[in-house]
Inverse folding.
């Protein structure tokens, strides 16, 4: 008998292994999933961003930052597009911000969380789950409690087993759930790219604004100095009886208005410093931030322009909206799959004995195989969940359309802004040429005694005011140029991998 038991053990193990192979074969055969497969939305049908054609958007001016620009269609966008602005200090600050920004740190952590959730769900649904169990218990059995006769017996019962369980996922519920998690992971990836692009754009805009404010403060202080000198001369004329007090009051009002504007500019300048520190991941009081001037920036000569059908593949906000649409489609598939039968298999192979010495001996082997088929018969909640998932998909589709339309509007606004910037700069450059000629003429007349010093001061103030306007439009062209890089998607950083593509 003992030898017979030994011969039976290999056969029982073969039965168990046969069960495992059967599970794997059924899993491989169950390759379809109910519910609609996701299809990316169609690209926008429009070919242009504006109803009227854009001008060549080129202009030639005298100012350093007033160079010509042109739109280049279909070209690749440099992921480090801000380097085209030509500021080494800006490049260093952006590199620091990309490393230290808590906003990006949070976005990266959220992405890792989504990826690990996918990995956790994949590990618990794609593969059979195996568990080892080892128990040992001491029992006392009293036959009298069962109506039998005899003395109470005490004994030890030892059990060691390995169990395998698996959901065959015949309707594809688990696969659809994984597809949804993969899409949400992609959504977080695009959110990270969008946060990165927004951070860079904010730093560029703030640095240019700071440079503009610094120049405006300098020019405004020069205007104030000129007005104060003019007021002093007019006061002397009043003292000599050559002018009335009524001539002084308007100029004095103008002086004080100019003086009041300087603290406002300084406040804006200081706020830009605080904002730059925060964007770089520093405390505002940490110091050692770079200061920018307009002279260190170069206006990008070539600006990227992609057609609307390509824009939807470049902008992270559109890609994020598409990922949410993909997730909603997969979650609808989960709701549909829940209406179908569920097949669960479990198997256990182990050994049981009254003494530890005989736990793995002959005749101690035990095994079982359980198959469970579950078909919902009456559960109105499942149908409601399906309708809710379909409504969620419709909402995600509408949200995608909204994001696309908003993106097209954003590009159109920036293109028109660039065109109007160029036209405004052309006019202001012509005005600057005229006011400089007028100032030179007034300087010659003053030297010849044909014009008063007050007239010369007024001509200088007009030239300085025109310079303020030029500073403003030069800075705006830089900001709007950076805004177009952002509107075009800013170039893909290449970080991360799409889980839905890998899935």
């Amino acid at each position: 008998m003992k030898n017979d038991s030994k011969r039976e053990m290999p056969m029982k193990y073969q039965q168990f292994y046969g069960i495992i192979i059967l599970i794997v074969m059924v899993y491989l055969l169950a390759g379809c999933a109910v519910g609609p497969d996701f299809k990316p939305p169609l690209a926008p049908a429009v070919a242009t961003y504006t109803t009227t054609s854009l001008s060549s958007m080129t202009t030639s001016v005298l100012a350093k930052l007033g160079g010509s620009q042109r739109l280049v269609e279909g070209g690749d966008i440099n992921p480090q597009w801000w380097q085209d602005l030509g500021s080494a200090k800006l490049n260093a600050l952006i590199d620091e911000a990309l490393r230290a920004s808590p906003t990006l740190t949070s976005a990266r952590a959220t992405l890792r969380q989504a990826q690990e959730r996918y990995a956790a769900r994949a590990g618990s649904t794609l593969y059979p789950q195996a568990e080892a169990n080892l128990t040992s218990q001491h029992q006392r059995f009293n036959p009298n409690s069962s109506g039998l006769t005899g003395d109470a017996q005490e004994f030890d019962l030892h059990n060691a087993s390995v169990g395998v369980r698996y959901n065959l996922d015949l309707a594809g519920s688990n696969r659809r759930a994984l597809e949804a998690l993969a899409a949400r992971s992609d959504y977080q990836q695009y959110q990270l790219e969008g946060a990165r692009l927004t951070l860079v754009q904010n730093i560029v805009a703030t640095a240019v604004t700071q440079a503009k404010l610094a120049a405006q403060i300098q020019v405004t202080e020069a205007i104030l100095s000129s007005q104060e000198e003019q007021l002093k001369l007019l006061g002397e004329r009043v003292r000599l009886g050559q002018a009335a007090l009524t001539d002084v009051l308007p100029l004095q009002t103008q002086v004080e208005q100019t003086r009041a504007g300087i603290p406002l500019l300084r406040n804006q300048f200081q706020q830009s410093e605080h904002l730059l520190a925060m964007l770089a991941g520093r405390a505002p009081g940490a110091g050692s931030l770079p200061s920018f001037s307009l002279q260190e920036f170069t206006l990008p000569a070539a600006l990227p322009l992609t057609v609307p059908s390509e824009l939807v593949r470049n902008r992270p906000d559109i890609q994020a909206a598409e990922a949410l649409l993909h997730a909603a489609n997969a979650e609808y598939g989960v709701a549909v799959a829940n209406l179908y039968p569920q097949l669960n298999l479990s198997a256990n192979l182990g050994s049981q004995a009254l003494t530890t010495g005989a736990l793995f001996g002959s005749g101690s082997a035990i095994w079982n195989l359980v198959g469970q088929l579950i078909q919902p018969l009456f559960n109105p909640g499942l149908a409601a969940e399906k309708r809710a998932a379909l409504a969620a998909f419709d909402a995600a589709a509408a949200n995608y359309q909204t994001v696309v339309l908003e993106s097209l509007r954003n590009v159109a606004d920036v293109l028109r802004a660039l065109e109007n910037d160029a036209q405004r700069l052309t006019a202001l450059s012509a005005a600057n040429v005229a006011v400089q000629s007028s100032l030179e003429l007034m300087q010659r007349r003053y030297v010849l005694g044909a014009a008063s010093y007050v007239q010369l001061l007024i001509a200088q103030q007009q030239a300085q005011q025109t310079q303020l306007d030029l500073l403003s439009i030069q800075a705006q062209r830089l900001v709007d140029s950076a805004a177009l890089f952002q509107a075009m998607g800013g170039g893909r950083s290449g970080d991360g991998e799409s889980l839905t593509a890998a899935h």
In short: The longest helix spans residues 380-448. The chain has a mean pLDDT of 82. The longest strand covers residues 153-167.
